[in-house]
Amino acid sequence: MNIPSPISTFHSDLFNQFKKQIVLKRDDLIDPIISGNKWRKLKYNTEKFHQGGYKALLTFGGAYSNHIAATAEVGRRFNIPTIGVIRGDELTADSNQTLRNAADAGMQLLFTSRKEYALREEKYYHEELRRRHGHILIVPEGGANYYGMLGCMDILTEIEQKVDAVFCAAGTGTTVTGLLMSSDDIKVYAVAALKGGDFLKDNIKLRLFEAGFDQEMIAEKMDQLILLTDYHFGGYAKFNEDLINFIKLVEQEEEIMLDQVYTAKALYAMHDLLSKDLIKEQRIAFVHTGGLQGRQAIQALLT
After folding, report:
1. Which of 161, 185, 194, 216 keeps 20 to 30 A from 102, CA to CA?
2. Full-prediction pTM beyond 0.85?
3. Where are the domains of the chain?
4. Using CA atoms, how far apart are residues 256 and 10, in angstroms rounded to an integer?
5. Which CATH fold would you assign to the domain 7-33+145-302?
6. Mean pLDDT score, 293-299
């Protein structure tokens, strides 16, 4: 693992024209497969697995899930039996490259109906899974639990430069919560990858509560949060010509690869706000959270 992940800067006027001090936290370079915040969120869950004497690690994801791909590879490298509960009972292990790679890495894939998959956060469903599979460690979809937050706290501690703000894509809010927990005086810009992203506020409050924060402390943390919900480009994994052209431009000018699901949307949002002079902080960190395997769906559009 390439930890701490590298720090870099922009090289072209695409971002340097705004006269801000911007550093890039390149978590996409942690590992080719267990990339970005996926390793951050699995790191301490992996430690818990070994300490708890579990039989297997079970988690949840969709057919193109970065989390499923990363968990399967963690299992292969660290000798952890893994089980992936996959949304869509019409799917097979050969439905796409993500699922094929997970199966090849040794993950047992369980394809469930969307109705059953909707129960993935219910305690009684977890008990049913334990009856079926024995003493298993159940990790939520996307690694969205306390141990995932702890891993994401390491991101800012690895940045030696003083920053006033940090930008990050947000899916479940776990990475954003870790960023909030690791600093008391930094604005955290969270760019929702899903349509209707206001739910992230409740997710983050719940995560902070689970981490032991009282209501006053949670309110203080929420004051640090700037949630951006207008850059989803139609919803989760949706994109349009503007986003594709932005990805091409960044890759041409900066030689940084982006995915259309998370990181491109976050970087587009930062560029848009900078161009409108809506970011008052001078020293900014942008966190590249990986997820590049998601580019498979748009590769033909990028050539």
Report:
1. 194
2. yes
3. 7-33+145-302, 55-134
4. 9
5. Rossmann fold (3.40.50)
6. 78
